[in-house]
Amino acid sequence: MMTDPYAILGVSRTASADEIRRAYRKLAKALHPDARPNDKVSEDKFKQVTQAFKLLSDPEQRARFDQGEIDATGQERPAYHFRSRPGGAPGERGPSGRFEDLGDMFSDLFTDFGASRSRGQPMRGAEIKARLNVSFEDAMRGAKKRVSLSNGKSLEVGVPAGVESGKVLRLRGQGHPGRDGGPAGDALIEIVIQEHPWFRREGDNIRLDLPISLKEALFGGAVRAPTIDGMVEVRVPAGANSGAQLRLRGKGAPKGEGERGDQIIRLVIDVPLNDPELEAFIEDWTPPTDYHPRKRFMS
Asked: N or C: which end of the chain has fewer CB within 10 A?
């Protein structure tokens, strides 16, 4: 319920008629239903702003409010017994149950969003925004997923292969319905790709840390490694250290026209814990005299 029309418009009680008019124009443009379709909160605020302006733009009604004779809705206060004026108080609603649209009073008020259009002219519906969570594999391969919208629709969305997180897909005509026969708005679907436990995307490439045993690192050999296409066999070179990289051409993310990036595998030597034989071997092992693992850090 509106209690203070000055506060509703954001003006002081000594504001001039021009200041009140400017304050109303600014608020009405921001809150008008044509600017914010299907926004009940803004519509209610617009009605309050309109009612406040109707009261304060009438010098006689404003004076009566300032003197405490009427309340913010234009109704007589209990302490006064003035006869109601013809046509009803400024706060009364019309036959439609809605406050008058003051666009008729100020013909240029809503030109920014089409108030100059005649009533009944078709108007496009508002957009609907939604998020769609997609697995890493589905994002790389492409998939069909369903998404539920705030208007109650459930739609199947084609997730393109190689899509990146944050990409917005536009579904034409799946938003809020239009007004007065206008077309429906669009649905904007933001793709959110879930993190994968071992794959990481870097541009068009996919990275993977691949654990190998100490024996595989020393002697090399064929090992199996995961890709987004399934398991493949890769060859570890003899004498490989942690951090060495292998490149699988064409096993990365799709990048258009049938091309794909690469998968880059970083080898990580995995040493078992609580292996008495390995511990005994290392304890008796003497490294070469010229060997030092941190030699490059020394000046």
From this structure: C
Lowest mean pLDDT among 53-57, 118-122, 146-150: 118-122
> What pLDDT is stored for residue 30 in this prediction?
86
Per-residue pLDDT at 115: 46
Does residue 101 carry a pLDDT above 80?
Answer: no
**Structure-derived torsion over alpha carbons of residues 250, 252, 255, 257, reported in degrees to the nearest 10:** 30
The residues, ordered by sequence, that sit 6+ positions from 100 with a Cβ below 8 Å of its Cβ are 50, 54, 94
Which domains are present in the chain?
Answer: 5-113 (1.10.287.110), 128-193 (2.60.260.20), 199-297 (2.60.260.20)
